[in-house]
Every structure is written in C-alpha cells, then in structure tokens.
User: What shape does this take?
Amino acid sequence: MIYDVHAHYGLYDTEFYRRELLNTAERYGVTRYYLSNVEGGYYPTREQVQLDNQTLSELVKEFPDLMRGYVYANPSHDNALDVVKKGIEEQGFCGLKLWVATFCDDPRVFPLVEQMIAYDKPILLHTFVKAVDQLECETTSRNVAKLAERYPEAKIIMAHLGGEPCHGIRPVAKYKNVWIDHSGTLVGSNDLQHTIDLVGVDRILFGSDLPVGFACSYGQVLEAKLSDEDREKILWKNTAKLFGEEI
Assistant: This one.
C-alpha cells in the first residue's frame, strides 16, 4: 500500500489533476492521497481560500476512500481560524496546510495550531531553503523547530525534507512531534537515506508533491537501504498512524 501524504489538486485545470491522481493511483497502487489546493497563490484573498477549499472538498466527497484533504488557510486573514474550523467540522478535512503567506512561527499562526491541537489533527508545513529566490515568508526548518518547541503537543509535518536535507533535517531532528515528508525532492538520490540516518524511519512519511514527480519519490523509497517492514512504515504505516487510520 501507498499513502501519499503530500499531493495537490488544482482549481483551474481540475480535469488534469483528476486524471493525474487517478492514473497514478492505478499505476502504482496508491491507497490514499492527502491533498491540498493552494491555487489561490502565495498570498490568497479570502475568496480564493474559500474557493480552493470548496473545490477540494467536493473532490474528497466524490472519492471518500482514495482522497483526504487539508484545509488551506492564510494566517494573515482575520477569519483564518473560522476557515480552519469550517474545514475540519463541516468540509470533512483531516488536517491543515500552511504555505508561504506567513512563516509558520508567526504569532498569527498560533491560534490555528492551538485549534489543531484541540482537534488532534496534523499540520502540513511547506518548508524550503533556496540558494536564490527564497520567498519573503517562506518557512525553513528553523522556523519549524521554533514552532515544535513552542507546541510539543502539535502534530507537525515538515514538507520536502526541509527543501534541502543537509540544511533542513538537523534543526528538527530532536523534536519528536515533527514528521518529515520527502515530496518534491527530485535532485539528490541520497537525500532520503541521509534523513533516515539522522532521524530513523518512524517519523518519515511518503509524499510525492503530485503532479510534480511521483515516480522519483517512489523510487527513492525503493532504493533506500531498508527492511521490508521499514519500507512499509515510510510508504504508509507512519502516515496511517499519524492520521488515526486503521493499520
């Protein structure tokens, strides 16, 4: 089985995303996707956030076994907490996705984290470090570490191995409330093994960043020096446990 903890659905070309999700599930045997819709952009308006979440909610309801969803919120909006509550309580989402509108340790994020702690549901944080073109409020693993320190009860998923694992993993390695997905890490064949060496396998989650590159992410797991049991943990068991799914 495969649980893809980090995949995407689109707003403007829904048929493309739907086709990619369904074809990839059939080809590779994906059991479950955990999806976000962030096509409202880096700094979405209230209306864009609402449309992103509504579109994804409709997809999740259409494929209740295959698809799960993260509610997307912009913490700079004064209605962000209401958006989160609606996403979890009314739209059937299973987690929260935060992108680049604010750093993840911005005080405006704290009420959202506290609400997710109350729900006992995970928060997926886009996390990246770049040599050039780092976005103004793009979270790095140092921001994630600060958030994890402040809220040890929070279930935090740090995306993309922190963007570059040689910089991204060490700041969060000691925080047991931080899980790590390796979606979108398309350049280093040893990136996943480096992460395993630093934190073990129990906090690593399979993610693809679909439609960016499912096959590459899957290949990294297949090539890693793992026992069959540890490979299953990364491919689906760790994610199932984190989200309270049956194993």
